[in-house]
Structures are given as structure tokens and as C-alpha cells.
């Protein structure tokens, strides 16, 4: 049964990951033995999810004007429990928008309107991923989405590197309280994780800010997703280890 997929991938092509370089390029050996350079749609360090020799899945564009026909979409990790991890950082927000439209997160309450990229913060220079409104009895709900791929065993960790931008988001979300609800939604882009925690070893400042934000009333939703070459399923929330 595939009717519970939130998102379907286009036809994907299998390969073996060779290397990543200049951030946006990845060499991949296709099943035919040909080595191609694919676009790597991920601005982060991809810590733990860029091991040479790992199986990958690529999408292919029919646009002849594109310099790189292939795009890296998935990589398989965890030899003991092979798990696909989503690489394309443009997808989590698109998938969360689909999930919000279906009201898949009862934790967010009732809402009628979903707005994306709404300016907020003291200087209005930041943009929240989603603003949920429309119920007169509820506060507006500000939702920030963070793609999460780093893991230690079954523990999903965010961030995978120091992020001053992420630190700023936590400060700005906390400042919205108590006149709005503020939610950090962690998109766990792999199904092998059953808990979530701040990535203290990669960014201890972020970890401290997240714990402070949580204590002040910022809500944390660690959302676990199953990634397959067919598409993406929502598996529910996992416990947050603070």
C-alpha cells in the first residue's frame, strides 16, 4: 500500500556515492559503471550521510539546458539496519506544507489558514516557515522547520554543525511568547531514529538555547519520517531527550 505517502519521488536511478565536493557537486557511479556528476541539493556538511561507497538514488531532469542532469535525492546509511536518508533540503518544507494541509499534526490545534515565509522578529528581517491562523479561540502558531539527518545510534540530533542562523531563530521564537505559540518542528529525515536531542557536540550554544526556549514555552515537535525510493511517509512524533 502506498496511499499513505505524503510525497512521491519521480523515477529514481540507483548508483554508488563516490565523493562530494564544492558543496553542490557529487560524483556517483551509476549501475552501468558510468560515473556522473550530480547536483547535491544540500548546503550543510551532511555529517554521517556522505560516506563513499554508499548506495544512492538520483532523479534525472529532461531539461537539456541544465548542466547537471542528475540530482542526488537519497543516500543509504547504517549497515546494520540499511536506512534511506533524504538529501534534498528543499523537500522538508514542501512535505510539511502538504502535511499541514491535511492537518496531520493534532498537536498544532485547529487552524484555517497556512501562510509561508511570513516576516517576523524584531527587525522583521527573518521569515518563519509557516504561520497558522484562523481560529478565534487560539493563538497564532509560528512553525519553524529544521531538516534533521545527523544520528547517533537511534538518536536524531540537530544541528549537524554550528548554526548562528539557527540560534537566531530560537531567540526570535522565544520572543514571540506568550502572545503566540512558537513551534520548532524537526523533520527527522530517516526512519531509524526513535528519539531526538539537541546536537550539543556540534553546537553547544544551540543546545543551551533550545533547552531555554523549551523551558520558556517553545514547543518541540520531533517528527519522524520514512524515506523510500517511492516517497516519504510520516511515522509520528518521537520522544525529545533534553
UniProtKB/TrEMBL annotation:
Gene3D superfamilies in UniProt: 2.40.50.580, 3.40.1350.60
SfsA N-terminal OB domain ranges (all copies): 18-87
Protein name (record): Sugar fermentation stimulation protein homolog
Record domain Sugar fermentation stimulation protein C-terminal: where: 91-229
Family matches, as InterPro entries: SfsA (IPR005224), SfsA_C (IPR040452), SfsA_N (IPR041465)
Pfam families: SfsA, SfsA_N
Family statement drawn from the similarity comment of this UniProt entry: Belongs to the SfsA family.
Entry-linked HAMAP family: SfsA (MF_00095)
GO molecular function, a single term: DNA binding
Gene (name only): sfsA
CDD domains: SfsA-like_bacterial
Amino acid at each position: 500500500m502506498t496511499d499513505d505517502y505524503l510525497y512521491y519521488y519521480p523515477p529514481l536511478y540507483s548508483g554508488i556515492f563516490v565523493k562530494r565536493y564544492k558543496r553542490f557537486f557529487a560524483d556517483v557511479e551509476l549501475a552501468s559503471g558510468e560515473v556522473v556528476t550530480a547536483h547535491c541539493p544540500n548546503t550543510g556538511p551532511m555529517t554521517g550521510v556522505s560516506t563513499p561507497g554508499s548506495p544512492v538514488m538520483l532523479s534525472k531532469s529532461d531539461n537539456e539546458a541544465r548542466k547537471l542532469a542528475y540530482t542526488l535525492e537519497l543516500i543509504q546509511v547504517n549497515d546494520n539496519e540499511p536506512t534511506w536518508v533524504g538529501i534534498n533540503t528543499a523537500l522538508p518544507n514542501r512535505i510539511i506544507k502538504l502535511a499541514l494541509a491535511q492537518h496531520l499534526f493534532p498537536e498544532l490545534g485547529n487552524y484555517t489558514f497556512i501562510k509561508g515565509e511570513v516576516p517576523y522578529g524584531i527587525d522583521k528581517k527573518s521569515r518563519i516557515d509557516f504561520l497558522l491562523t484562523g481560529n478565534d479561540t487560539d493563538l497564532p502558531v509560528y512553525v519553524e522547520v529544521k531538516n534533521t539527518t545527523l544520528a547517533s545510534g537511534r538518536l536524531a540530533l540537530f544541528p549537524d554543525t554550528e548554526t548562528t542562523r539557527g540560534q537566531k531563530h530560537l531567540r526570535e521564537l522565544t520572543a514571540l511568547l506568550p502572545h503566540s505559540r512558537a513551534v520548532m518542528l524537526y523533520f527527522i529525515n530517516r526512519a531509524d531514529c526513535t528519539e531526538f536531542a539537541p546536537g550539543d557536540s556540534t553546537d553547544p550554544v544551540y543546545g543551551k538555547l533550545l533547552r531555554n526556549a523549551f523551558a520558556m514555552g517553545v514547543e518541540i515537535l520531533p517528527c519522524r519520517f520514512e524515506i523510500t525510493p517511492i516517497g516519504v511517509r510520516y511515522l509520528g512524533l518521537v520522544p525529545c531527550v533534553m
